[in-house]
Amino acid sequence: MRDVSASYGSRRVLVDVTARVPRSQVTAVVGANGAGKSSLLNVIAGTLPPTSGTLRRTGSRRPAYVVQRSDVSDALPITVRGTVEMGRWAHRGPWRRLTARDHAVVADCLARLDIRDLAERQLGALSGGQRQRALVAQGLAQEAELLLLDEPGAGLDLAAQTRIEDALAQACRDGVTVLRVTHDLDVARRADHCLLLRDGRLVAEGLPEAVLTPERVRAAWGVPDLA
Ligand SMILES: Nc1ncnc2c1ncn2[C@@H]1O[C@H](COP(=O)(O)OP(=O)(O)OP(=O)(O)O)[C@@H](O)[C@H]1O
């Protein structure tokens, strides 16, 4: 993206952001609360139109977007399997009969996130970690070239986090480009590429160890000892 700016009404949330998301790698987006991380994902997903600047993407399919689990209503009457099956609508269109291949992809994604035994449970009746795994499985089921995730690991136990990390690493090996927002600097350090945002501006971009210097971390979060 080049010189991308975006606003909610009169509030500018991204200011002249020029950044790269390398293909088939994991890119971590980091920054303090309100820095513009979700806004950046929304611009790339196409749900927040930029007010200026340009975005260029290789590949033709729509990105898959895994939202924060708190964005999904408990009242939604849908099973885990149904949630993952919705991921196939990108290929099939809503309410169409799923093909044998669709069912195979859904079964594979349930297995990758280790939630086969939860398949017939209601999404709204799951714990936070179980629900997050279901949402990541839905994202993977879309077989998109670009997978966007908003804090996929936040508040999860080690087993759930590990499952998600393994599934994302596998997706990358399969050629998927992963762009994830994270508040966990250890997760960001393990990424291939890192974007650091502050007040809607890109402060630094590149290898995580080069981006996440103690000075920048201090400046971005305004606290002395996060690094
Ligand atoms: N729908 C909206 N309408 C108006 N302002 C919004 C909206 N969504 C976000 N904002 C504002 O845009 C700015 C950037 O928000 P954004 O959600 O992109 O930050 P973030 O880095 O993802 O934060 P967090 O770490 O808290 O999730 C904030 O000042 C926020 O208040």
From TrEMBL:
Pfam families the record matches: ABC_tran (PF00005)
Name of the protein in question: ATPase component of Mn/Zn ABC-type transporter
Domain ABC transporter: 1-224
Organism: Actinoalloteichus fjordicus
Molecular function GO labels: ATP binding; ATP hydrolysis activity
Keyword Lipoprotein: no
Cytoplasm keyword on record: no
InterPro entries named in the record: AAA+_ATPase, ABC_transporter-like_ATP-bd, ABC_transporter-like_CS, AztA-like, P-loop_NTPase
Record key words, sorted: ATP-binding, Nucleotide-binding, Translocase, Transport
